[in-house]
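Collaborator request log, item 7. Partner lab (contact: R.S.) asked for a structural prediction of Protein LDOC1 isoform X3 to inform their binding assays.
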Amino acid sequence: MVDELVLLLHALLVRHRALSLENSQLMEQLRLLVCERATLLRQVRPPSCPVPFPETFNGESSRLPEFIVQTTSYMLVNENRFCNDAMKVAFLISLLTGEAEEWVVPYIEMDSPILSDYQAFLEELKQCFGWDEEEEGEEEEEYGY
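Returned to partner:
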């Protein structure tokens, strides 16, 4: 019985040494992989945004189409930042200055539902600052858009 226990203890010690050696090798591989990952992360730079940050809009009607194109393009390439209508409207509001900023203040003061509806906000913006849908359609026909 004692001899069997000695043999069993010896077998366990041998197995323990083998597992300890394997564990050490795995830890060394893990250390190397972590170092390699850190090296690769230092080499990778996040891609720069292909669309420049939009310019502000002060209410000048002739700049409204450009403003909408710039903001829409910027939000499309950064869609993870603009995941809902409220975020999109807040972004547009942050770029309003002058007359356009004054125009939006009452909507903010009364916590208007339009602040959570991007399309409705755009339509109000267009209506207030002279975006003429019919004129746009005529230009498209004239230039073959």
